[in-house]
Amino acid sequence: MLSFKSLIDRRIQSLFPIVLYSILILALARLVLDSLKSKQSNVFGSSSSSRRNRLPVVVLPEDRIEDYCNVFEGTWVWDNVSYPLYQEQSCPFLVKQTTCNNNGRPDSFYKNWRWQPHGCNLPRFDPLTLLHMLRDKRMMFIGDSLQRGQFESMICLIQSVIPEGKKSLQRIPPMKIFKVEEFNASIEYYWAPFIVESISDHATNHTVHKRMVMLDSIAKHGKHWQGVDILVFESYVWWMHDPLINATYGSPYKVQEYNVTTAYKLALKTWANWLESNIHPITQNVFFMSMSPTHLWSWEWNPGSDENCFNESYPINQRSYWGTGSNLEIMKILHDSLQELKINVTLMNITQLSEYRKDAHTSVYGERKGKLLTKEQRADPKSFADCIHWCLPGVPDVWNEILYAYLLKNYQNFS
Ligand SMILES: *[C@@H]1O[C@H](CO)[C@@H](O)[C@H](O)[C@H]1NC(C)=O
Ligand SMILES: *[C@@H]1O[C@H](CO)[C@@H](O)[C@H](O)[C@H]1NC(C)=O
Ligand SMILES: *[C@@H]1O[C@H](CO)[C@@H](O)[C@H](O)[C@H]1NC(C)=O
Ligand SMILES: *[C@@H]1O[C@H](CO)[C@@H](O)[C@H](O)[C@H]1NC(C)=O
Ligand SMILES: *[C@@H]1O[C@H](CO)[C@@H](O)[C@H](O)[C@H]1NC(C)=O
Ligand SMILES: *[C@@H]1O[C@H](CO)[C@@H](O)[C@H](O)[C@H]1NC(C)=O
Ligand SMILES: *[C@@H]1O[C@H](CO)[C@@H](O)[C@H](O)[C@H]1NC(C)=O
Ligand SMILES: *[C@@H]1O[C@H](CO)[C@@H](O)[C@H](O)[C@H]1NC(C)=O
């Protein structure tokens, strides 16, 4: 039996290099120019000539998830008819980091699972309805590289209905901005791995080895978030490399080691204060993504084994499976912080549903320092498998389907 200490040590060893590699990707991620030749939709043909003709979004009763239904409780159902919702080849905005099949992953079952809540059905994701809801609006994903995956998923989910020349992706570090001209809508990504300010805020020049968080500073980021209609926050994995973290609080000159739990709580408090003095709850919608689980140790779901997520082809079948990577203390802090908030923030509690998906990480089919893993590296999954990030198409698409369901549900409130 491993002691807690050695578990932590092991986690630190295995988390560090992986996160470091994948975070470096941003530095090298080129802007993939839109080379899409495929199906031109003519939906735009009519709407472009009549910009003023604003179709109201009609939310059918069956598309409105009811309060009684907890959409985060359910099961993964095999569905190779409707899923995946897009193909790697058809989405020019995907970076190589996530296109597992293109990168040589031999199995593709991981793309064919639908999330089925126990109490209701998720509405069918309709890109045009989303665009109508986003007309003249900005939606922003804020967080680390996992959040960037969700941002890319969202773009891929909608981009096929937008003709060429009417969509664009700009990179203005630390942001990426996807614009849909016809709808004057933008979907944006903002790099802020701790939400509050830190020395890791440079979009490309940062490392997890040196972290220092300013627990009471958020203004530099916050000014870019002001007035954004839909804000989707996330921050977890960068906190979790060590039980202690260097941080300042009170005085910008006094750096101290803090327990991560204490630091996380203080950071969320700073975030909450920012929200309370900057958000107009009637016109702005705020979401928070709960932690994205990792699958670093196969003994957690397969006792006796000593691997990781590599070569896993099926979801975990054990009801309420929960790995040690998803820290319950952090979850509790998140819960309490949201309770205390004076404005409504919707918690997207995607941890449990993603916990089942040991099969859906990039594993050895991603990049390292902007290059696909070499044959030698692939042959050594114990050192090189990335069991933190997710393949696309994949799990983040489902997070976005649920986000879409909430946007439909709230539509009357924020339109
Ligand atoms: C879909 O899955 C079913 C059941 O596993 C299988 O029989 C069928 O061949 C699959 N279809 C495709 C297109 O992969
Ligand atoms: C375009 O959207 C922005 C908000 O994202 C809004 O401020 C602006 O007024 C819109 N432009 C038009 C022409 O409606
Ligand atoms: C990255 O940042 C460090 C300090 O934060 C600095 O010393 C170094 O020159 C930077 N590197 C580049 C390539 O900008
Ligand atoms: C905090 O910073 C000091 C000085 O740079 C360093 O020695 C220490 O290891 C850091 N602590 C953590 C938890 O990173
Ligand atoms: C930090 O955590 C340790 C161990 O969990 C605990 O003993 C200590 O009191 C904590 N310190 C603070 C300042 O919360
Ligand atoms: C992957 O798992 C299958 C069985 O599930 C096994 O036959 C195969 O040898 C494994 N591949 C590697 C490279 O470990
Ligand atoms: C999220 O869901 C899990 C169960 O799936 C639960 O244990 C946890 O408390 C929830 N988190 C919050 C913040 O409500
Ligand atoms: C938050 O939302 C609930 C129900 O959606 C509503 O009853 C409540 O008034 C809202 N609170 C605030 C502070 O807006």
UniProtKB/TrEMBL annotation:
GO terms for cellular component: Golgi apparatus; membrane. Keywords: Membrane, Signal-anchor, Transmembrane, Transmembrane helix. The keyword Kinase does not apply. Residues 122-405 form the Trichome birefringence-like C-terminal domain. Signal peptide: none annotated. One of its GO terms (molecular function) is O-acetyltransferase activity. It holds the Pfam family PMR5N. The chain crosses the membrane at residues 12-33. It is a single-pass membrane protein. Its main location: membrane. It is found in: Membrane. InterPro entries: TBL (IPR029962), TBL_C (IPR026057), TBL_N (IPR025846). Residues 69-121 form the Trichome birefringence-like N-terminal domain. Belongs to the PC-esterase family. TBL subfamily. This is Protein trichome birefringence-like 31.
